[in-house]
Amino acid sequence: MQNRSLILVGGLLLAACDASTTDETGGGGSGSGANSSVGGVGEGGGGAGTSNPSFTVTFDPVTVASGTERTQCVVKRLGNDTAIKVHQIHNQLLDGSHHLIVYRTNDTEEAPEPVDCQPFVDTLDPERGSPLMVTQKKDEVLTLPDRVGFVLDANVMIRLEMHYLNATQGDIDVSATSTFVTMPDDEFEHAADFLFLGNPDIDIPPNSSYTLGPTFLPLPDNLAGSKFFGITGHTHQWGTNVTVDYAPSEAGPDTSLYDIPGWQWDEPATVRLDPPLELASGGGFRFTCEYDNMSSNQVGFGESAEDEMCFFWAYYYPSKGAFVCAHTDEFGGFDLCCPGSDLCSQIF
């Protein structure tokens, strides 16, 4: 039974496609003064109108035939001759691009031509790399809090992983651009990092509304004291809402962090927590995903745009590394955060 649950969660970890040491966190939320976007161009340092050096990586245009859905990757050198602290990342996608995941990677050779790739393949192995940002909007800027940045080694390799779908009647071009804006070393204090969290227990009847959750997912003890400053919810096309609360324990009390009126699955808002939310020992997130399946098919968890997901990603500091965490109630239920759990090695 547990092996079956491991397969389900392994699928979550590998198919987490719609998304290394750093630091920082805070409270708030959409109902308590939180911003509905994490920064903006030029906000909080870096960005347009500044003299801070920037570096750009591109997923060059690919022509996609009607009805085609794929996940492809490129690996390119960022071009930084020295170690840098990145205070802002600006991602831009063309129509047809379902989402983009930006990674730092320990690859030693560039792979500039798009190739089919497994989503989130390096998440469980920090020796190979880790995600920095996930974007599902056509244009999104992530500006980190003051004195916080992603720390990147000299000559770092960046992987752009793009999931795209052409639902039109003709060919389209898809592409992506990711621009890294640096901050001066004397303005840096904390390294930032990334968490991806979700529940794969999705089983939506045809032509039906469906709610998954609320799901409580405690975080590893080594993250106690971490400060979370940004959250984005994620589903596929039948998703109508994602909400996220913070709780110091499974018993609560809960504090709303992410609850967006008119939430849209294809342009999900990113909430900035200002001040950040500080994680207590034993604390975690309670999240809910809602759906309206307007198809005649049973819909379950999966990577395809025809399947569904219940995820959110969060940005935090000081860094303890990037994590993917999951809860499943299937076959008795259990929680899993990778890397770090003994169960992670049983997935692959």
Number of strands: 23
N-to-C CA distance: 17 Å
What's the SSE pattern? HEEEEEEEEEEEEEEEEEEEEEEE
Q: Number of helical segments? A: 1
Instruction: Provide the helix percentage.
Output: under 10%
What Rg do the Cα atoms give? 19 Å
Q: Give the biggest beta sheet.
A: 6 strands, mixed
Question: Structural class, judged by helices and strands?
Answer: mainly beta
Q: Which percent range describes the beta-strand content? A: over 45%
Mean pLDDT: 84
Coarse morphology: globular
Low-confidence stretches: 1-8, 14-49
From the structure provided, what is the oligomeric state, counting identical versus distinct chains?
single chain
Descriptive notes:
The chain is mainly β and 348 residues long. The protein has one helix spanning 2-15, and strands at 54-64, 69-77, 84-93, 97-105, 111-116, 129-135, 139-143, 148-152, 157-165, 172-182, 190-191, 193-198, 203-204, 208-218, 227-234, 239-247, 255-258, 270-278, 284-293, 299-300, 311-317, 323-328, 334-338. The strands form five sheets. Strands 1, 3, 7, 8, 10 and 11 form a six-stranded mixed beta sheet that branches. It starts with a helix and ends in a 10-residue tail after the last strand. Residues 1-8 and 14-49 have low confidence and may be disordered.
